[in-house]
Write a structure and sequence with these properties.
Amino acid/polyamine transporter I
Length: about 425
């Protein structure tokens, strides 16, 4: 039985080579390792994509949900996280099975006008995503160091350039930095949870029992659920797995996919905890104090300090900064994948970063409200979502493309149900934002 494992198209570094070698030994059963040591070479791709699920847009919706309705919508966070796990597993599987990413497969199988249209739409999605995430990082610097927002934006630009420069050293350094930032966010919310002392009985109940508190809570639940799955990281995840560890043996592909499912489960569980903790924090502080009209991230930060003390405000700002820096970096990576996949064209990553920074800087210098900008960006993302999820489900159910990793019938049914629900909720959200009362 012939099995090979090799690095993908990214410039490999020493860490990459060691990771690929260790993964290859695990796949052929010749590693001599047990427990976590066997899993470590496969961890990374899902940690990068999971950042999109704790970006500054999530801060806005989760804090509003907790402030207005307490713990009532916690089950929505749990449900949306489970749906996101399924979609990200399918994306990871697509890259492993085909050696192609989602954008490349769209280019191979769809008519050229459709491909060009999808590319334009996904580029707009990537820019809209970056606007929200870049502004979130700038607000984080602003809250932490009390610097003007325009200066915070320039600092954000410099820091993200430095993080993106790690790509020249292979996939492992970038995975390590993004995973570390996710760890910082999670640690911040562990601290917040200890400080705000949520009602654990209500947490346990509302995490599993669906419920609403009037028509407005239904709309907000739609926003939390419908805007959770980000189209750009669906494209990105398939790219991260397509060439990271390569094996031609069907049995080893199935084993590789098992490890990637574990990667997704761990990373998305961390992201799910962070989202739940955001809502719990808002419920235990703002809602419990009758402060249901927290309308912005800045207001939430200002209100936390008198309620819970200065430490809570600092921890909140640090988590927002880490989320913004990590997610805007991941958004730029996704933009590179989208252009390469649809058009077979590359531009330097620094140039893409520069181009996508311009709208964010323009919004900040023109004085637009940051939180309102985050909400509008989520509406733009809603339009792009069907063009990521639908092709993903179509391709992953095809045995001629996926081989032994083709979806089981039940998996396809669940994926279509999730697709229909998420798309419906996104368009309902768009309708309410644009034309609702």
């Amino acid at each position: 039985m012939n099995t090979s494992a090799k690095a993908g198209p990214a410039a490999p570094g020493n860490g990459d080579a060691k990771t690929v070698e260790a993964a290859g030994r695990v796949l052929v059963g010749d590693d001599g390792c047990k427990g976590l040591a066997r899993l470590l070479p496969f961890l990374g791709p899902a940690f990068i994509t999971s950042i999109a699920y704790v970006d500054p847009g999530n801060f806005a919706t989760n804090i509003e949900g907790g402030a207005k309705f307490g713990y009532t919508l916690l089950w929505v966070v749990v449900a949306s996280n489970l749906m996101a796990m399924l979609i990200q597993c399918l994306s990871a599987k697509l890259g492993i099975a085909t050696g192609r990413n989602l954008a490349e497969l769209c280019r191979d199988h769809f008519p050229r006008p459709v491909v060009w249209g999808m590319w334009v739409l996904m580029e707009l999605v990537a820019i809209a995503t970056d606007v929200a995430e870049f502004i979130g990082a700038a607000v984080g610097f602003n809250l932490l160091f009390n610097m003007p927002l325009w200066l915070a934006a320039l600092v954000t630009a410099v820091v993200t350039f430095l993080i993106l420069a790690l790509q020249s050293h292979g996939f492992r350094p970038m995975e390590a930095v993004i995973s570390a930032l996710l760890g910082v966010i999670a640690l911040c919310y562990v601290i917040e949870t200890f400080i705000d002392k949520p009602d654990w009985a209500k947490v346990a109940y509302h995490a599993v029992v669906p419920g609403f508190a009037g028509a407005e809570s239904v709309l907000l639940a739609t926003g939390i659920l419908g805007a959770t799955i980000m189209p750009h990281v669906i494209f990105l995840h398939s790219s991260l797995t397509q060439g990271r560890i390569v094996t031609s043996d069907p049995a080893h592909k199935r084993r590789l996919f098992f490890f990637e499912v574990t990667d997704v489960t761990i990373a998305m569980s961390v992201a799910g905890f962070v989202n739940a903790a955001m809502l719990m924090m808002a419920a235990a502080t703002f809602h419990a104090q009758g402060l249901s009209d927290i309308a912005s991230i800045e207001e939430a930060h200002r209100t936390l300090e008198p309620l819970l003390g200065p430490a809570a405000g600092w921890v909140f700002a640090i988590s927002l900064l880490a989320a913004g820096l990590a997610s805007t970096t991941v958004g730029t990576m996704a933009g590179q994948v989208i252009m390469q996949g649809f058009l077979q064209r590359h531009i330097p990553v620094w140039l893409r970063r520069l181009v996508t920074i311009v709208p964010s800087l323009a919004i900040i210098f023109m004085g637009f409200d940051p939180t309102r900008t985050l909400v509008i960006s989520q509406v733009v993302l809603s339009f792009g979502l069907p063009f990521a999820i639908v092709p993903l489900v179509i391709f992953t159910r095809r045995r001629d493309l996926m081989g032994t990793l083709a979806n089981w019938r039940l998996t396809t049914i669940l994926a279509w149900l999730v697709t229909a629900l998420v798309i419906s909720l996104n368009f309902y959200l768009v309708y309410q934002v644009l034309w609702g009362a």
